[in-house]
């Protein structure tokens, strides 16, 4: 799925980090850490940035699989992104920061990114 590869690649470059993270963090932890990392090329040198990148990559990969599975099964997918999208990390973080902290504490990173994709790329008739 080309769009998934693009999403994962952009998330990896812009959110920064490594897929070597061992545990899943809450969305609130993800947002709190992401807000501390400057959005510049030196961010890739920060260990925390590597963990965030891994979390974002797993979330986008999971959502891409959900979209593919839903379409294969004839169910409505959670979002309908175009074949190619442009990921604006600042816009994504603004959306995630807009989720109330009490909700973010109970959500996974995948839940937050799924909500962002659903709001940004709603399915026709949905």
Short description:
With 126 residues, the chain is mainly alpha-helical. The chain is 61% helix and 0% strand.
Uncertain segments are 2-10, 13-22
What sequence of helices (H) and strands (E) makes up the elements? Answer: HHHHHH
- Structural class, from helix and strand content? mainly alpha
Assess the beta-strand content as a share of residues.
Answer: under 5%
Between the first and last Cα atoms, what is the distance in angstroms? 22 Å
Number of helices: 6
Radius of gyration: 14 Å
Percent helix range? 55-70%
Q: What is the average per-residue confidence, as pLDDT, rounded to a whole number?
A: 83
What's the shape? globular
Describe the structure.
The protein has 126 residues and is an all-alpha fold. It is built from 6 helices and no strands. The longest helix has 27 residues, at 47-73. Mean pLDDT is 83; it is low at 2-10 and 13-22.
List the helices and strands and how they pair.
Elements: H1 2-15, H2 27-36, H3 47-73, H4 89-98, H5 101-104, H6 109-120
Helix pairs in contact: 1-3, 3-6
Question: Keyphrases for this structure?
Answer:
126 residues, mainly alpha, 61% helix, disordered N terminus
